[in-house]
Amino acid sequence: MIFDFQHPHADTGPGYWYDAYVPRLTRRGRQIERGPVVGDAEEAMTLASMDGLVVLFPAHVARYWARPDIAYLPVTDLEPLPYALVWRSEAESEPIRALSGVIRDLGPLPSAPAP
Asked: What pTM did the predictor assign?
């Protein structure tokens, strides 16, 4: 199980941001152990490839950041991340407001069923 391994800890941003990506507990209440501090994602990936650490990333990383020395596996015991649509206020336009309205009307994605 992935939670039997340490997960690197990033201290480059606010704590609440990191907690959103790597919560302290799984959905079932199991503690996620945090390990060495890393400065960026590349350092985390390097440590994972050498040291037996596990790094949690959004699923798209497996597609866009493929590495032959890293195995990507789905995680089923964490809540889905809340996402936000963000844009510069100077760039706001009718198409952006329309997209925002569609997303708001669709509502949140359904939660994954508990394993």
From this structure: 0.59
